[in-house]
Specification:
Blueprint lengths: L2 E5 L5 E5 L4 H7 L10 E4 L5 H13 L2 E5 L4 E5 L7 E2 L1 H4 L9 H8 L1 E5 L12 H9 L3 E5 L2 E5 L8 E3 L5 H11 L5 E5 L5 H12 L3 E3 L5 E5 L7 E4 L4 H14 L2 E5 L7 H9 L3 E4 L3 E5 L10 E2 L11 H8 L5 E5 L9 H7 L3 E5 L2 E5 L8 E3 L3 H13 L3 E5 L2 H4 L5 H6 L4 E5 L2
Parallel strand pairs: 2-15, 3-14, 6-7, 10-11, 18-19, 22-23
Antiparallel strand pairs: 1-23, 1-24, 3-5, 4-5, 7-9, 8-9, 11-13, 12-13, 15-17, 16-17, 19-21, 20-21
Helix pairs in contact: 1-7, 4-6, 5-6, 6-7, 8-10, 8-12, 10-12
The structure holds uridine-diphosphate-N-acetylglucosamine.
């Protein structure tokens, strides 16, 4: 198994291009199942999760062509030839559940394996199922699979999410585009990836309003058609690389970045003493003060501080002046990186959903283990600031969500290499 070797060697300086969003691309791809015409996605990220979604769609009958070195995905589903999303693929990637709504909407039938838990929590899919039931789906759970039918087709309805779910909003939004009548989704997720999906679906002929607010209205149409759509910028990759100059005391411009994607995160960085400036090409981040200031962080659905940046922010706060409190409200088990950071000399105390981080002068390199995607990159950030060598193992987690991480960081002067093994 490959690992990544990082040597802390001072401030990073340069530019980092930000890719299209993994999480947006993973929800845009299943939209191909809603139409027999081609859907072309540009600005796609080159990641193993995207390959997994391609495999899943291919198993359902989609023709998938990866063009221009993977940055363009040409998808065509003339017909859905198999309506079963198999456990072998779904267990690798939870976003696989996003094929359920589109398949059901187009053909009135879908069988999808239940994803099960993952490293960061139990992560049930009950809201996806309840929302589809509200649209008239009949569901049966059998042998670990959900068997869904919609005799007579899905029908528009009003559905209020008891709490915000990004994936459930996406699944039901896609299903509602082909339902008969009007669907109103209340307490819907407002993430930029939802807005991107709605924009793409609209290009495909869907009638959608209110995306980006907590009420989304969808007027069902008879059929959708083909479209070409660029995947929105990856705000989590953006935030992650914004932390690289912050943690090393450098200055880096993130090409394609926009403050509007990450308002709450930018505010916290500034409160910690980091400079964030919008430029014509993106966002420039500089850390000129001698030490980061401690700040408290609470993760929340968009537009709040993203849970997907909590681990990376914790790495930064490990060397802050003072004590920071990080509260994780989205996932119940998302501090797996804390014991690994402690192996590097961090002072962290975890109690339930709260981590108290008291800054130390300097982290020390150590062998550490990635436990999930965002945890893995937090350890790389910590390694960039640490004294000595850090070896991060299990980097297959990293490959799910960060393309060319070694190339992007070494272009800014980082001492980082991938060790094959
Ligand atoms: C998406 C992102 C993930 C991010 C998360 C929160 C993708 C592919 N993944 O995940 O990177 O961390 O949003 O911003 O876009 N829940 C239920 N029942 C459900 C659905 C969710 O109880 O049916 C719970 C989850 O366990 C979690 C919370 O709701 O505690 C929010 O999860 P959700 O927003 O659905 O996350 P995902 O869409 O899975």
């Amino acid at each position: 198994m490959d690992s990544i070797l990082v040597r802390g060697n001072g401030p990073l300086k340069g530019q980092i291009p930000i890719a299209g969003a993994k999480n947006a691309c993973l929800t845009l791809m299943p939209a191909t199942l809603l139409t027999d015409e081609p859907l072309t996605l540009t600005n796609a990220p080159r990641l193993s999760d995207i390959k997994t979604m391609s495999e899943l769609l291919a198993s359902l009958g989609t023709e998938v062509a990866s063009l221009q070195d993977g940055q363009v995905l040409a998808l065509g589903t003339k017909e859905i030839s198999n309506h079963t999303a198999d456990y072998d693929i779904v267990r690798k990637m939870r976003a696989s559940i996003l094929v359920l709504g589109p398949m059901l909407a187009r053909d009135g039938e879908a069988v999808v394996s239940l994803p099960g838990g993952c490293a960061i929590g139990a992560r049930p899919v009950d809201l996806h199922l309840k929302g589809l039931e509200a649209l008239g789906a009949v569901l049966e759970l059998k042998d670990g699979y959900v068997h869904a039918t919609a005799p007579g087709g899905l029908k528009g309805a009003q559905f209020e999410f008891p709490f915000v779910s990004v994936g459930a909003t996406e699944n039901i939004l896609m299903a509602a585009t082909l339902a008969k009548g009007t669907t109103v989704l209340k307490n819907a997720a407002r993430e930029p990836e939802i807005v991107d999906l709605a924009e793409c679906l609209r290009k495909m002929g869907a009638e959608i309003g209110g995306e980006g607010t907590s009420t989304i209205t969808i007027q069902g149409v008879e059929q959708l058609h083909g479209a070409t759509h660029p995947v929105v910028t990856d705000r989590i990759e953006l935030g992650t690389y914004m932390l690289a100059p912050a943690i090393t005391g450098g200055e880096v411009e993130l090409l394609g970045g926009r403050r509007s994607l990450l308002g709450a995160f930018c505010n916290k960085l500034e409160a910690a003493g980091v400079e964030v400036e919008e430029t014509s090409a993106g966002l420039k981040v500089a850390q000129k003060n001698s030490r980061i200031r401690a700040v408290d962080v609470v993760t929340e659905p968009y537009p709040g501080f993203p849970t997907d940046l909590q681990a990376q922010m914790m790495a930064l706060l490990c060397t802050a002046d003072g004590t920071s409190v990080l509260e994780e409200t989205i996932f119940e088990n998302r501090f797996m990186h804390a014991p690994e950071l402690m192996r590097m000399g961090a002072d962290i105390d975890v109690h339930g959903g709260t981590a108290t981080v008291t800054g130390v002068d300097r982290l020390k390199g150590a062998p550490v283990m990635a436990t999930d995607l965002r945890a893995s990159v937090s350890l790389i950030l910590a390694g960039l600031a640490a004294e000595g060598e850090t070896v991060v193992s299990r980097v297959y987690h990293l490959d799910r969500g960060y393309e060319h991480v070694v190339g992007k960081l070494s272009a800014c002067g980082a001492s980082i290499e991938r060790i094959r093994g």
